[in-house]
């Protein structure tokens, strides 16, 4: 913890120098970030942004725990979202809401499992299959909202709006989807720490040869973990589109970088359930605080990105050093 | 002491102290070696012998103490400076280019030149002269990749001689050699010493130290515990100095009472790039029997065990457990059918060094330690505590990472975990490699007890003393084949050594 504290301080000092060099008042800028992230107005934005980031971070942490990297989060997220909207537009009532959530989850799970099967059966590395299968999923969604599912009254590439009873109930800036994501994190934490399946995933992460020797069936584990990962990513997509503005807008799940910020959080926390949650919330707060800083001070948008990058690199170095300290020279 | 000699010692280390976080690796170590002497430096793992040698070779700097060569105090901040002062070291892993000739390897980094260009003829002549002078059995034009391991080691020694090293450090040089190659190395070392070179022979093998050295210094816990002329000491005294207590050496366990065949392989073959790595191996292991597989590393033993355990698939042949074919089963299914396995590679295969000891011991038992689908931390702790207790594993706590345990305790933990499966068949590879003498006795006793409880044990080891101590029958593997089978009585060092080198008994 001390190492993290010291590096955080180092990043803040370096950031302050950068801010000062552009003529901004560093203290004022930092103050704007904190109030922007956690102030009475900001906390709503932070929460709204944190829900999908935490969800994606946890989704990607699940296979990462066993040393497997799912780079296809975006595709699974988008596929989950478009499936949920497609179901929600056709199945009415609260039943439709539930089916939409399930459809999003299943779509993401099947799609990620397909990527896993490509590795297990055909020997194509998971990194390649997950990443490459991401693009057709995004393209399919883009096509659907431009043609078959297009909102008739709009020129934008977006789906029609979901009927009022197929929407997740809102609580301020977030929906009750928040509880679904929190539940998913809790389930991951319990499975990871307290079940044989979680133990086997962790053992595989300790060393693939050790896991093989111990009789852990890696191919089956790969498919299972990817299905869970993609399923949660799909659920995140469904939760996002079943909230405001209650429709699928092309690119709306990609531009905010939920997937990559989530992956970063999972990597920094070595996929530990609690660590991933903390890192994801931290990055979400940093991002929404950064937007607030941009509005409140004269600091340009680019500099907020630089500031975030500095913080992330310092944090990565700190966790890297911590891990190195624990292993022998 | 040393001042009584008219000539100053070739190498003298005085009061060397080296601290690492939490450990005093060298605690005021004095070492004095005369010119033309073969001096053995002995000690268990972690006794400080490697630290001491790396200080002499300039790889690390002492916190206190000084080094004198031929009476002149020196200090090295790098290996290059030590080499310049005439010190050379053969490390455990060789640093050779397999595709280049002996000459190219020897002169690499110190090539003779003529008008700025490489002078290959001068290089060849110089190397040929060195080979001739030291009576080595190799040619300057040989490709290093084609040479046997024992000869490659001589290339390493040639590299040092070419750089005019007069003090040669050899770190566990016999670990990779056959008995015959070891004898050959000793002849070379004696020749070098007779020529006035000073040799530091780092080893933990008692009989080799007694066979080759003039004097011996024993380290334990960073301190010198014994300094003697080799002629004035014996195995028991050396072992006691290394471990700090009397140790029963070379116990030969009484033969077991073999029952029915439990494990059998039939014409097991694994094709390699050129020659098959496993070539039609047929064997059987009976209940209550230890079958030893002897051989120099790399002759198919590893692949044999991997194929039986399910880590490697065989190209042809059968593996039978209780007369049922298991060759197509997964590792998990084979373990469930009754195979436990202590692998050769403790850190990569047998354990997860960064994970807690308790988790390492729970692997393979995770389904049994769960109740209603949930793992219970107290069950994992109790399971670990039981193994730690029964097998005498010394660890601070069971939540300490595996890597904080000594090699011997790691091995006891892995062996304990596998024995706890109570599987009818135990595959065990190199059970005492890198393990202290005290732990060796404990591990051997555990294996003998396991056999006496009616289990079948397939033991792969490069240590002939271990094979002889435990095996009821001994198979010798050479180039992927079983070339000889011996009964316990017939498995003498000479017979095994000959078969390991590919000779027919």
Search tags:
heterodimer, A: 329 residues, mainly alpha, two-stranded antiparallel ribbon, 13 helices, 1% strand, globular, B: 505 residues, alpha/beta, Rossmann fold, 6-stranded mixed beta sheet, 17 helices, 24 strands, 33% helix, 26% strand
Your description of this structure?
The complex is a heterodimer of chains A (329) and B (505). Chain A has 13 helices and 2 strands. With 329 residues, chain A is an all-alpha fold. Chain A has a domain at 64-255. Chain A has a two-stranded antiparallel sheet. In chain A, a hairpin with a 2-residue loop joins strand 1 and strand 2 (174-175). In chain A, helix 5 (93-122) runs antiparallel to helix 6 (126-146). The radius of gyration of chain A is 21 Å and the shape is globular. Chain B is α/β, with parallel strands linked by helices. Chain B has 3 domains: 2-243, Rossmann fold, CATH 3.40.50.300; 251-338 and 424-505, P-loop containing nucleotide triphosphate hydrolases (Rossmann fold, 3-Layer(aba) Sandwich), CATH 3.40.50; 348-422, no CATH class. Helices cover 33% and strands 26% of the residues of chain B. Chain B has a 6-stranded mixed sheet with strand order 6-9-10-3-11-12, sandwiched between helices. In chain B, strands 18-21-22-15-23-24 form a 6-stranded mixed sheet, sandwiched between helices. In chain B, helix 13 packs across helix 14 (407-420). The radius of gyration of chain B is 25 Å and the shape is globular. Chain B starts with 10 loop residues before the first strand and ends in a 5-residue tail after the last helix. The mean pLDDT of chain B is 90.
